[in-house]
Amino acid sequence: MAAPPACGQWARGVASRHGHLDASGRFYARALLQALERAPGQRIDLAVVADAVVIGSSATGRQAVGVRGEVAVPAPTRSLLGLESDHRVILAAAPELGVLVVHPHATIAQLLTEHYRRQTAAVGRVVFATRSVT
After folding, report:
1. Residue 33 lies in a domain
2. Is 133 domain-assigned?
3. How far apart are CA 94 and CA 107, in angstroms?
4. Which residues are paired to 44 by β-bridges?
5. In which domain, by residue range, is 97 found?
6. Which residue, of 18, 83, 97, 99, is most buried by count of CB atoms within 10 Å of its CB?
7. Domain count of the chain?
8. Above 50 in pLDDT, residue 6?
């Protein structure tokens, strides 16, 4: 499988990009799709898993990768996730799993907020412990 692009690489070969949905509910992810070896015209299927859309290759897929590396998210799927035209999304390609995951930007913002809230609480405990020792 091809190496993921050098943009926003995460651990274990996962690559990410920011994107947005156009007026037709499409997003463009040519580099990430190439990392997954998804060529224009290749059949794909989408599934809503928790608060994200997981896109994988499927010989009987209901959709296909567009010629410019675009993927359309159907209206019912967008509705389930609260996505509308021009909403920002985070795209994560996992070549080892062969999937592209589309996260609503709000979901990632919430996860990061919770993460840093926990980090801040942990740092506060360390600072408090250090002050009480001295």
Report:
1. yes
2. no
3. 19
4. 57, 63
5. 11-105
6. 83
7. 1
8. no
